[in-house]
Amino acid sequence: MRNKSLSNRYLTILFSILICVGMILSSCSKSDSDSETKKSKKTKKTEVSEVAEEETESETPKETAATTESETEPPETTTEASDPERVRLAGTYEGYATQTKAESHPEKGSLNNYAILRNDGSFRLVLNEDGTGKWEDSMNGNYDISEWTATGDSVTITLPGRTVPGTIKNDLVCMNDTDMYWYYGKDGADTSIFNAITSDEALVVTGDDYYFGIGPEGYNLEKAMAYYQSAADAGVGKGYYGLGRIYADRMIGEGGTHSTAISYFDKAIELGCPYGYIGKGKLYEWGTGVDLDYATAFQFYKTAADNGCLLGYACMAYMIQDGVAPGYSRNGQTSIEYCQKGMQSNDWYDQVYSMYILGYTYVYQRDDLAQDTDKAVEWLVKASDMGFNQAMQRIGDLYYYGTNISKDYGTAIYWYQKAYELGDPRATRMLGHCYTNGYGTSVNYAEGFRYYKEAATNGDAIGAYNLAICYEYGRGTDVNMKEAFAWMQIAADEKIADAYCELGFFYEEGEAVTQDFTKAFDCWVKGSTLGSEDCSLYVAECYVDGAGVALNYSKALDFYALGMSQAYNHGNDETYEYCQQDIAWMVEEGYITQAQADAAVGYYFS
Q1: Residue 179, domain extent
Q2: Is 359 part of a structural domain of the chain?
Q3: If we measure between CA atoms, which residue out of 299, 206, 286, 359 comes closest to residue 30?
Q4: Residue 103 CB coordination number (10 Å)
Q5: Angle at CA of residue 143, ends 139 and 149, nearest 5°
Q6: Which of 11, 192, 348, 463 is the least buried, fewest Cβ under 10 Å from its Cβ?
Q7: Over the stretch 50-91, which tens digit does the pLDDT of each residue have?
Q8: Reported confidence tier of residue 181, pLDDT bands at 50, 70, 90
Q9: CB–CB of 497/286 below 8 Å?
């Protein structure tokens, strides 16, 4: 009979089999720039500031308790060979599952506890038609089963001193031995019913542990990439998705990162992995590396959901409650329903992202759903408790901006710090902003610089802008105009409008680059296109002065009026007044008529 002694402890350590809690993938948080950049070229040097961002809408396997081998013969049992359930289920089931990381780190366990397919013959379960059987282990010996019974999908085996319950579905057995799970299957059994994955697919699980910082060793982007690459090399589609996500979300300033991401997402799709559609949808939703296209993004998410990737429902929910999904209003109830579908996934990332979006849905008033801070925090905390750094960062935002809750910088820093420790780039940047401005802590430019540099290195574009400001003005580091220009260019390439404002001044003043008024003008035009009222003001001034472009009062008027509209929408009273005063000056000087001025302003405010 099976002896639950020291040998069984070794058995437990060597073959700890995970609880099937599927978790993978991932991310993203909508935000707008909270810039305090210069309002006029004349005052640029004293008023420039770094950018924040405005708020917008394991368990460890347990060791089986040791028991002593019975000193008496097991009780006789009566069995019937003709029992139809035994006849149906009798046979030899090969053990195939091993635990992922909790096997090596039993004291820490793992959030991504998948059953890993491994038909190596090291252990098996033999169930005879007469009700007897064996629990065989090639390393620690064989143990007789005195009796086993089955009803439907339920099975119970009797060992000395205890019984072990389990389930049998489609020729797969899962035994729950004192909260430890043992998986077995007949040849040809469909392992997906217990969410088993191959050893190659397990590489993606480990990659996710490093990417999200949820594994025993924490966040490590290089190791995440290495594991994703190994999975991709083995032909695992989700490995390509992981690589694409890194290139899309964590790499900036290297050139071609977005096109590389798309190529990886396409490769995942070719291999039948619907997560590739999620990756492409994110790019179109944010206009990252491609033209912003909500309709295309939504269709990609729907295709992912239709092909079994439940994360697609949560991504659609985000767009629906945010009012950008084609054909939908800001419908909170539909968003909730889609999030609930996403939470049915066995994948960790699908689950926590769905919880995150569900919490976010309650942050603001929706067309058919009242704002509810308590429910918002409840779901965000649930996702945070499962290790999702983006949910931690969002809770920090609620307290930082005082969104339907009392503003509390100290609490915001607490949550940002938790997310930072798991590698969240935006939370890292927000810590830098707190230290640079003394929000919830004393002003510490050196700490601000350190956090900004980490955020930029991990792919945060606004972090890159703020790092450039540190180098430009010597905040927490020595003045270094070449580094400032390099990081400012990276931020601009990532469509940070304020970065184009600064680049324009670099070219206008010949700082770190050859003076070039035409390039300065071009930078401000790009920033204006991205919605920067300050850039619109500078473009107008270029037309008035004939700097970098031919003098043209009509076009100057158009950009002044555009700048007024942008400034009004962003609550930027100072730039609004600059534009308004300059329009009045052009009328006084006779460069334009009052009727022209009224028509231009009326066009942008209609």
Answers
A1: 84-197
A2: no
A3: 286
A4: 18
A5: 135
A6: 192
A7: 666 555 553 333 333 333 333 444 444 444 456 888 888 888
A8: low
A9: no
- Type of residue found at 439: Y
Residue 375: inside a domain? no
Please give the tally of structural domains in the chain.
Answer: 1
> What string of DSSP letters covers 36-95?
---SSGGGHHHH----EEE----PPPPPPPP-PPPSSPPPP----TT-HHHHHH-EEEEE
Give, as one character, the DSSP assignment of residue 128: -
3-state helix, strand, coil in the chain (%, to 5): 50, 10, 35
> What pLDDT does 334 receive?
96
Residue whose C-alpha is closest to residue 498's, from 54, 55, 30, 57: 54
Residue 582 lies in a domain: no
- Which tokens sit at 217? 């060793």
Closest CA to 417 of 147, 213, 587, 600: 213
Q: Are 67 and 160 in contact (CB under 8 A)?
A: yes
* pLDDT, the chain, mean: 84
Res. 123: pLDDT tops 80 = no
99 exposure class (CB count in 10 Å sphere: 0-12, 13-18, 19+)? buried
Q: Most confidently modeled of 210-224, 251-265, 434-448?
A: 434-448
Q: How big is the CA angle at 123 (ends 117 and 124), to the nearest 5 degrees?
A: 95
